Amino acid sequence: MNNNNHIDTPDVTVIQEVLKQIVHEETVEKTLKAIQNEEQTRPKLSLELSLQRRLDKLPKKGDETVPLVIFRIPANVRERHRIFYEPEVVSIGPFYRGRESLRAMEEQKIYLLRDFLACYPETDIKVLVREMSLLEDRARQCYAESISLDSQEFVKMLLLDGCFILEYAIKWSNNEPDRLKHVRWATEGILRDLLLVENQIPFFVVMKLISLIQPDNKNNTDLLGLLVKVIGANKFLGNISGSSVQVETSCLCEARNLAHLYYKLFVPKSTSYLSTLKHTPVPVPSSRIRRLFSSLKLCTYPQPGKRDTKQINEEPVYMFPCATELLQAGIILKPKKSSTDLLDITFQDGVLEMPPLYLDPHTKATFVNIVAFEQSNGEDEFLPFSSYVALVENLVKTSKDVVALRQCGIIYTFDPSEEEAALFFNHACHVVLDYSNHYFANLFEEIKGYYDTHQSKFKNKTAGRMLGLGK
What we know:
- The chain folds into 2 domains: about 75-265, no CATH class; about 275-460, no CATH class.
- Helices cover about 55% and strands about 5% of the residues.
- The protein has 20 helices and 5 strands.
- The chain has a 3-stranded mixed beta sheet with strand order 1-3-2. The chain has a two-stranded parallel sheet with strand order 4-5.
- Helix 7 crosses helix 10 and helix 18 crosses helix 19.
- The radius of gyration is 33 Å and the shape is extended.
């Protein structure tokens, strides 16, 4: 019997095509899923890789007891007065290297290297490069931020800048002929720029160069003495002291950079008010914590030394009356012209005596950078120069105070107006102090206490006269 029901058998070719299509679709789907998974994991991998690359660029972990040497001024501080923090003539170190406005002096560095080698013909340039290369990792650790220069450029910078500093000191101190010597703006600008906090190389680089060219001079006193003469030519503190600086080898060897050397040599260490403070041991942060605070430009952790016991529970004096108010209250302001110590300030029987302060555009930069160095370094527990700045800021509130202090012979500025001078004292320096325990804490209290008492007596006397009770 014939079966009329017929079932068509699918063509093998068709089946294969269908299977291929299914496989293709599955493959595409798997591929898309794989791509999606890869895209989801890619950010994580990229983050890990980017962090690892940044870690790889960092110098090897150093000794945490070694403090950071060269800082950036906080942006909010620098932006207000960039002119005081940035070099005008020469770049030293990496922060301003390559700046177009400094290119002319950058080209002069190779000439000074040539002259430096000519002075010491037995010195091989290969030896200098090798020794600078050995210092690279240590030098990189001295900066508060990672330096992007590759190894060759970094070593080149250390060599050129170190030789520039020494050769310039030789030419300047020995009055040797030089094409820069007779360009007054260049000379003054270089002296200014060498003391900027951000414009530095580690001092051990300079010391290494000296030891290489003067191997028989164990204390390296010859070139170091010339270097001291050069930085002492900055008129801010060197001129005021009026006396030669006694250079101790230990002081020079402990310097971290030229700004630090200047601070150690010229910031006076008077004990007129320091001696009245009672030293009370208090917990001091570990080296790691001190390093962290320094990198943040803060010096606010507890320091040894307190006020007299009777004053401990009293509110510290943050402010005292300005110069015009002190004068109106009968307090006498006198210049202490014979003093060789900028911090030799005394207050006795209503008389405030302090050495004259001379400020021109270049010494203003030194003034501001000494404060910045002390604030970031924290070497002196009582922050003497920051305390001095706080004292001057109290004396100068307005242009009238500038006029009064100028008439008293205490302040000499070269500003076009008293208003500009007042603005400098009020806004140029960023000072963080522990007002219960700084260098002039007791002086603040003495001035404020005398003023309050004197004002009270003066008011009572005036009231008595008005009532006919006194003469």
